[in-house]
Amino acid sequence: MHQLDTFQGGVLKKYIFVVLFACSPLKKEKGFCSSASGIITASIFNNCVFCLQGYQGLVDGGDNICPATWESVSMMLQLGGTVIGSARCQDFRTREGRMKAACNLVKLGITNLCVIGGDGSLTGANQFRTEWSGLLGDLVKAGKETDTEAKKSSHLNIVGMVGSIDNDFCGTDMTIGTDSALHRIIEVVDAITTTAQSHQRTFILEVMGRHCGYLALVSALSCGADWVFIPEMPPDEDWEDHLCRRLADQRSRGSRLNVIIVAEGAMSRDGKPITSEQIKKLVTDRLGFDTRITVLGHVQRGGTPSAFDRILGSRMGVEAVMALLEATPQTPACVVSLSGNQAVRLPLMECVQVTKDVTTAMAEGRFEDAIKLRGKSFENNWNTYKLLAHINPPDVKSNINVAIVNVGAPCAGMNAAVRSAVRMGLIQGHTMLAVHDGFDGLAHGQIEPITWTSVTGWTGKGGSMLGTKRSLPGKILEEISENIAKFSIHALVIIGGFEAYVGGLELVQAREKYEEMCIPMVVIPATVSNNIPGSDFSIGADTALNTITGVCAFNSRYQNTFSVFFSLQTCDRIKQSAAGTKRRVFIIETMGGYCGYLATMAGLAAGADAAYIYEEKFGIRDLEVNVQHLVNKMKTTVKRGLILRNENSNANYTTDFIFNLYSEEGKGIFDCRKNVLGHMQQGGTPTPFDRNFGTKMGAKSVLWLTEKLRECYRHGRIFANTPDSACVLGMRKRALTFQPLSELKEDTDLEHRIPKTQWWLKIRPIMKILAKYDIKLDTSEHADMEHVIKKSPLGK
């Protein structure tokens, strides 16, 4: 399928299908889950129905299978949990129950089933599909349906999406709901850190994860925990001694708190549970530390979905629809997954089997296999954690000096990258140097050693602890080269935005004149604008996105007094305000320079009616269409509107112009309010995504520099002048890659400070479809069916 027909108001009328949020009968609850998946599927199909209360509703039928209309799914994006409900269903485990479910579907002419749940729920869906022909035959024999009805429903198409906070389903990097759960955990960790530092306490935090340690592991990375217990990798036999030594060592270095993260399914190597109470007793008895336990429990399942989960659910929902449209009777049931930045389709039962293989590996004591089976993302997180938390700097030094500098505007997550880069460098035996105030500091000698303890607690701090400036090195190259020689700098880590990228290019070009510049360099993208060539994501963009979609814009009289409360929620509160006050449209200006990433993704996450950006030209005719669209919308029960505008989207159609235009044209129909979010998008504490992303980027950059230094060491000195010795470290589709700065220049619009190709432009139509515009959706790059792994560590 290369291109679908024009969507009639976003509706494709031909197909009938059901959206089901299922709960495994073997589990008490299925995880926290953004409703975005259901929204997308309900939006694209005209004849779409919801099955309330999961499989139980499918078995009971009647009012439990109800129409899903455009208006009924509006205002759902910001709601947590599942609006359509979920319940345990013993009936569906029996053939008789599945016959009732099949009968209900056939009577309604439903042949497409979208199931959102965990591995148990999806396994049940696959069994239902496998038995479908037999179930129809039994129904015909019993006289409960006719031959004609059976022929019309001769096969059942199934696609699954994984909704689980545990991220315990193999085949996907992230399940819907996991990021939101991490937000809840990190909010608690940040709050506890304050009291722990005040009283010099040790805190033990128990998080969910009976069979999967993802939440515990990523939380530990995101907060710089001293220790983490996960079921996939139990600690060594002498873990009690090791833990006590580590905690005592941290205190001796001046740390005023210790944080230990425990997954609820943590166990020892002999299979015995490791409990929070057991750890508390150990720390109290041996070290005498004041120790407290906090069990987060179901707090992790609640709250508002994060921007990441809203966008993930939306993208997965669209891919699920495409999979159903393209399915044939021979197509195996598939699950829609996330691999890096790509939506992929995987055979459902392959994923289920690998998930079961993890449990088998843990039961048999093959813990390394269990880590590998969890997937590359989990394995990378574990390896990064081990390096940063459990390995002390070596006694033998490498005689290598690595400098770290922040350049450009500050953003959340910068400090996490600096911390991991510093500690990884010290682990390699290098001397790490902190450069204050950007390239100016490098030119003026604002350089000093930075130690392990210097960066303690930096992961959760916003802004730039090193200080940062926007100035470029072009006019101070002489001074920079002198200080590189003076401080014997052998490698350089540049963390920042577009100025960091351009500054790196200028340093590379200066190699022809200044031999001191012939050292390995790496640029780590860190900017809210997400406009660095060579990377699909930048550190800081996720935090800014959550600020826009979730941060409350205070009334102007409170902004100065209560600016510290920027973590309350924006577009959500604005939408609630607009919904409470009928017929109101909000117009919001976002940052990003000429890059429309924030406006587009915030529009998708917040359910905007339009998002104006520089990359997609618009004129007065487009504005007229948008105004008329809102006029028509006000005739429905959804009497609110949300418009986003990137700050540099158009020099003439300014935010004030658009506000005045909408206000004039909407007179008597709706009124308007505007809000310019400004620099609050650069502030706040980093999200779990930015903390984790920054941590992995910082560590990987130093490991790469270490390898480059070995390659460039000749005749007793370091000399690096090849293109691949100065790179941007970026996320490209499914992997972190190093790309030479000189090669990326060709893909750069230097005038407008944006890459010439930007991946997210291809998903802009999704936002328009959800806003009910008549557009065409290009599916020429749809995801083909892939396989989880060709050969697992189990040899299967």
Q: What sort of overall outline do the alpha carbons produce when their principal axes are compared?
A: globular
> How are the strands of the biggest sheet laid out side by side?
3-2-1-4-5-10-11
Contiguous uncertain segments of 5+ residues:
1-15, 23-39, 551-568, 790-796
Number of helices: 27
> How many strands, which pairing sense, and closed or not: the largest β-sheet?
7 strands, mixed
Please give the share of residues in helix.
25-40%
The residue-averaged pLDDT reads 86
SSE-based structural type: alpha/beta
Number of DSSP strand runs: 26
Radius of gyration: 27 Å
Q: How far apart lie the N and C ends?
A: 34 Å
User: What proportion strand?
Assistant: 15-25%
Could you list some keywords that capture this structure?
single chain, 796 residues, alpha/beta, seven-stranded mixed β-sheet, 27 helices, 17% strand, globular, disordered C terminus
Please explain how this structure is put together.
The relative contact order is 0.11. The chain is globular, with a radius of gyration of 27 Å. Helix content is 39%, strand content 17%. Helix 14 (376-390) packs across helix 25 and helix 19 (541-550) crosses helix 22. The longest helix has 25 residues, at 688-712. The strands form six sheets. Strands 3-2-1-4-5-10-11 form a seven-stranded mixed beta sheet. Strands 14-13-12-15-16-23-24 form a seven-stranded mixed beta sheet, with helices on both faces. Strands 7-8-6-9 form a four-stranded parallel beta sheet, with helices on both faces. With 796 residues, it is an alpha/beta fold. It has 27 helices and 26 strands.
